[in-house]
Specification:
The structure holds two protein chains of two kinds. Chain A is about 50% helix and about 10% strand. Chain A is α+β, with helices and mostly antiparallel strands. In chain A, strands 4, 5, 6, 7, 8 and 9 form a six-stranded antiparallel β-sheet that branches. In chain A, a hairpin with a 2-residue loop joins strand 7 and strand 8. The longest helix of chain A has about 30 residues, at about 280-310. In chain A, about 35% of the residues are buried. Helices cover about 60% and strands about 15% of the residues of chain B. Chain B is α+β, with helices and mostly antiparallel strands. The longest helix of chain B is centred in the C-terminal third of the chain and has 32 residues, at about 75-110. Chain B has helices at about 5-15, 20-30, 40-55, 75-109, and strands at about 20, 55-65, 70-75. Chain B has one domain (about 5-110): Winged helix-like DNA-binding domain superfamily/Winged helix DNA-binding domain (Arc Repressor Mutant, subunit A). The chains are: A alpha+beta, B alpha+beta. At the A-B interface, helix 2 and helix 3 of A face helix 2, helix 3, strand 2 and strand 3 of B.
Chain lengths: ~375, ~110
């Protein structure tokens, strides 16, 4: 029975400390009363039940049916953002971007005889408007140009008439990519513009053809815009890094930790502000503002990103933060962060002397 | 008034005649439901917290038996009124359903 009691006590850790202090012995007594003679460990059903209801008790407000939904919304969005931050940290494990010389050598393998101009070393793994992110760029990042923050690339373009006709360049590049161990993704061909109105012959509209390929942690892209004639064709190609493997464990771990911490903080603030806490209304409003400013960009971005990924082949997925609308909507995210911190600070203020107890039963 | 779920109805019913402690409520609910409803301890205490916060149940007394703390709960006047109202609602539904079933049986004879 001592072993069973010890195991029950361990499961009761799912309940908040104040609850355990006032109700722990009573709960333990009821659990031991209900246990069949000779049993020395809780059943899986009992354990799951205690964890589930212990977590519910952490939210306080026993009569509320909506507090669980608010807690889940808070935990999920916090977990997603922390996961995105963790994946950004994991990108630091990626190999440096290919240098200009390496890029030139690879391009010479893929399209022999074709000169590319403007190939330079990338200034950083991620850039905003071609520059590494710095405090000077904070305005751009926050005030509308956050979408410019993206993975850098090393590449160049053809100046003048390409060495081969457009279709030959595409076929030659595909052949050489495969010959040198690249995985070539389905080619995308689009009209450069739509029909301007009748009469319209789609065959006369210039086409843009994109080739995507991947070899190890290197991605390749090439775009051929075929003009009306060979000499009006433009062409560009370049390389960037694929998502490093560390992103996945970092993201998963960060997401779980973020969600757990957010749930616990939500529960702490919820328990503290139930009853007659002077800031109970302010805390609710700030929670609403936080969730609005965090969820709205996410709910906008996710369907957009899903469509984008379904429409085009991707050698590797876009970074996780882009799926959450970041940093395009980073200003909204920051406002949400400020609101969350204010809410927690308001919850931390001392309740008045006439504050109702945390739990009516607990204090009885 | 919010709809009362079956476990809540059974917990209130278990406390209708006299105060009971946690495990006593679990046993009584099992008897009342003919062995069909077996409340787990975590579920019971979440329900008791809610019913107490809603003012339907209150703490009665506590005692220690075999070194185990037992806290007793009893119905409040509001809890008794709520249970009475729910019982009347269920009786009305049961009566209506029985009348329909009786007519069906008569037709099939």
């Amino acid at each position: 029975m001592a072993g069973l009691s010890r195991r029950y006590r361990r499961l009761l850790l799912a309940y908040p400390r104040t609850y355990r202090r006032s109700r722990g012995e009573e709960l333990l007594g009821a659990l031991l009363d209900a246990a069949l003679p000779g049993r020395d460990r809780p059943t899986a059903r009992e354990a799951a039940n205690l964890i589930r209801h212990g977590l519910r008790a952490r939210l306080g407000r026993p009569a509320s049916r909506s507090v669980v939904a608010w807690a889940v919304l808070s935990a999920v969005i916090s977990g997603l953002f922390i996961a995105a931050l963790a994946t950004r940290a994991a990108w630091e494990t990626a190999r440096p971007m290919p240098r200009a010389g390496e890029a030139r050598a690879m391009l010479a393998e893929i399209l022999p005889g074709q000169e590319f101009a403007g190939i330079e070393d990338a200034p950083a793994m991620f850039v905003i408007s071609g520059q590494p992110l710095s405090w000077d760029m904070a305005d751009d990042l926050l005030l509308g140009d956050g979408g410019e923050y993206s993975l850098a690339g090393v590449g160049g373009s053809v100046v003048g008439t390409p060495a081969h006709p457009p279709q030959d360049s595409v076929e030659l590049a595909q052949h050489n990519l495969r010959a040198h161990g690249w995985t070539v993704y389905p080619t995308m061909t689009r009209n450069v513009y739509d029909c301007a109105g009748p009469p319209c012959d789609p065959a006369t509209i210039p086409k843009s053809t994109t080739i995507l390929a991947r070899r190890g942690d290197t991605k390749f892209w090439m775009e051929v815009n075929s003009g009306y004639t060979w000499d009006t064709t433009s062409m560009g190609a370049g390389f960037s890094r694929a998502t490093p493997l560390a992103v996945y464990p970092f993201g998963l771990t960060g997401g779980i930790l973020g969600a757990v911490v957010a749930f616990l903080m939500f529960g702490w603030a919820s328990r503290r502000t139930e009853g007659r806490h002077p800031a109970r209304v302010e805390v609710k409003v700030l929670l609403g503002v936080t969730l609005l400013f965090w969820w709205a960009p996410t709910l906008f971005a996710i369907p957009w990103m899903v469509r984008h990924h379904l429409d085009e082949p991707h050698p590797s997925w876009h970074p996780m933060w882009e799926w959450l609308g970041q940093p395009t909507f980073s200003l909204l995210f920051l406002i949400g962060c400020g609101s969350a911190l204010l809410g927690l600070a308001a919850a931390a203020t001392e309740p008045g002397p006439d504050r109702e107890p945390l739990n009516t039963v607990a204090s009885a | 008034m919010k709809d009362m779920r079956e476990p809540t109805f059974l917990v209130l019913t278990a406390l209708a005649d006299r105060p009971r402690h946690g495990y006593g409520i679990v046993q009584e609910v099992r008897v009342l439901s003919g062995g069909r409803v077996r409340l787990l301890t975590g579920t019971l205490y979440t329900a008791l917290d809610r019913l107490t916060a809603e003012g339907l149940v209150e703490h009665d007394r506590e005692e220690v038996v075999d070194g185990r703390l037992r806290r007793y709960y009893r119905l409040t006047a509001e809890g008794l009124a709520s249970l009475t109202a729910e019982t009347a609602r269920l009786r009305q539904l049961t009566t209506a359903a029985e009348a329909r079933l009786r007519s069906v049986r008569l037709r099939s004879v």
